[in-house]
Automatic annotation (TrEMBL):
It comes from Glycine soja. HAMAP family: Lactate_dehydrog. Residues 244-406 form the Lactate/malate dehydrogenase C-terminal domain. Its EC number is 1.1.1.27. Gene3D superfamilies: Lactate dehydrogenase/glycoside hydrolase, family 4, C-terminal (3.90.110.10), NAD(P)-binding Rossmann-like Domain (3.40.50.720). GO terms for molecular function: L-lactate dehydrogenase (NAD+) activity. InterPro entries: L-lactate/malate_DH (IPR001557), L-lactate_DH (IPR011304), L-lactate_DH_AS (IPR018177), Lactate/malate_DH_C (IPR022383), Lactate/malate_DH_N (IPR001236), Lactate_DH/Glyco_Ohase_4_C (IPR015955), NAD(P)-bd_dom_sf (IPR036291). The keyword Ribosomal protein does not apply. This is L-lactate dehydrogenase. PROSITE patterns: L_LDH.
Length: 413
């Protein structure tokens, strides 16, 4: 498989105000058949310009090292088969500059990163999917394995590299890299190991994609979301932790199972820490629009508080149980994070319990990230829902904030 250095001349036709996305017109007579950044279907292409390129010039030259992931794309003597196979349409107009080209990067191609990547692919959420990991062999293996499913998936350009420059121009960077719990270990225990990784991971992501939104998954997710916020210097709406989106799905599953209804008809939130101090919001649970606790009380149906506590305890124990049985959790977090990515990329304005900067909400006054039901769209966190918490829930939420803050103060960030 040969590496080829090509120089391509492009004329800049249009750029957005931050120069993170530009429409450029190809001026070369032939294009290489594959590369890592350029779509080759037409002679006018979108190219996410590297922030360091000389953008003042109206003509730019891009040097690219390109190689084919399969040997068959280059014809004899470097003939561009894709150009030969299709006859170009006369006077074709370039694509509309208002059309968006989405790029999502997943940092960490372990169990969690790959579950997220494959769910994103099957749900057709992005034009480009980038994987980054320090384990180059595993990374290339994972990339090829996904690329080989191309005939069964929506078309997505998949790249992988140990070098984070491959993430340049990402709309969303999902960070899953890091140590995971062994059986019985708490998430907070992972902090020191994952903190040093974050110091290496976050600054290059920010440098290569200054307009990106960071979605943190690595544990302990609330503290590491705070760390990512501090290291990135981003506004807090562009730093999100996957938080209790997963716990809330586990909660909804258990309630739905208990009552034999569809989990999608159960509206129920777990808030606070993604971990042992999480808080179940029983007072606002509804099923098919019926508020559960007030319905039971109005009908004078007796329920035991212990039953509710046991369901919440099962939510907290879920990860420990799965880790004890299979060593790690992956599928549910994969769907959970892909669901968040969909709300972001497709500007769904959907409400998810995710880790946000909680200062000022429910009497929390420290700089702490924890989960609250929040609206997610293209601008990241668009707002926090004004859910009513009863006194006990409010107190538990403040206690959860205190638990996270105590860990955070040891960081010295
Ligand atoms: N927030 C949540 O709800 C959940 C969070 N997690 C967390 O996700 C993290 C990953 O878990 P798994 O995927 O099971 O672990 P894993 O061990 O399978 O994968 C971690 C990957 O990170 C890579 N990595 C290490 N340093 C890196 C660096 N500097 N740059 C890029 N990649 C690097 C490793 O090579 C490895 O492939 C853990 O912290 C785990 O606790 C897991 C499940 C749910
Ligand atoms: C590992 C983890 O955080 C979870 O599955 O909830």
């Amino acid at each position: 498989m040969a590496w080829v250095l090509s120089s391509l001349k492009f004329e800049v036709v249009w750029c957005n105000s931050s120069f993170s996305s530009c429409l450029v017109q190809n001026r070369s007579s032939s294009l290489p058949s594959t590369d890592h950044s350029i779509s080759l279907n037409t002679r006018s292409i979108y190219y996410k310009i590297h922030p360091l390129l000389p953008l003042s010039a109206t003509t730019i030259t891009i040097f690219i090292m390109h190689k084919s992931s399969s040997d068959s794309t280059l014809g004899p003597g470097g003939l561009d088969l894709s150009q030969a196979f299709f006859r170009p349409i006369n006077n074709a107009a370039p694509p509309s500059p208002t059309k968006r080209h989405n790029k999502i990067s997943v940092i960490g191609a372990g169990n969690v990163g790959m579950a997220i990547a494959q769910t994103i692919l099957t749900q057709d959420l992005t034009d480009e999917l980038v994987l980054v990991d320090t384990n180059s062999d595993k990374l290339r293996g994972e990339m090829l394995d996904l690329q080989h499913a191309a005939a069964f998936l929506p078309r997505t350009k998949i790249h992988a590299s140990a070098d984070s420059s491959v993430t340049a121009g990402s709309d969303l960077c999902i960070v899953t890299a890091g140590a995971r719990q062994i059986s019985g270990e708490s998430r907070l225990n992972l902090l020191q190991r994952n903190l040093s990784l974050f110091r290496a991971i976050i600054p290059p992501l920010v440098r290569y994609s200054p307009d990106t939104t960071l979605l943190i998954v690595s544990n302990p997710v609330d503290v590491l979301t705070y760390v990512a916020w501090k290291l990135s210097g981003f506004p807090s709406n562009r730093v999100i932790g996957s938080g209790t989106n997963l716990d809330s799905s586990r909660f909804r599953f258990l309630i739905a199972d208990h009552l034999d209804v569809n989990a999608q008809d159960v509206q129920a939130y777990i808030v606070g820490e993604h971990g042992d101090s999480s808080v179940a919001l029983w007072s606002s649970i509804s099923i098919g629009g019926v508020p559960v606790l007030s319905f039971l009380e109005n009908q004078q149906i007796v329920y035991e508080k212990e039953t509710l506590e046991n369901i919440h305890k099962s939510v907290i124990d879920s990860a420990y149980e799965v880790i004890k049985l299979k060593g790690y959790t992956s599928w549910a977090i994969g769907y959970s994070v892909a669901n968040l990515a969909r709300s972001f990329i497709r500007n769904q304005r959907k409400i998810h319990p995710v880790s946000v900067l909680a200062k000022g909400f429910y009497g929390i006054d420290g700089e702490v990230f924890l989960s609250l039901p929040a609206m997610i769209g293209r601008g990241g966190i668009l707002g926090v829902t004004n859910v009513h918490l009863n006194e006990e829930e409010t107190q538990r939420l403040r206690d959860s904030a205190k638990t996270i803050l105590e860990v955070q103060t040891q960081l010295g960030i």
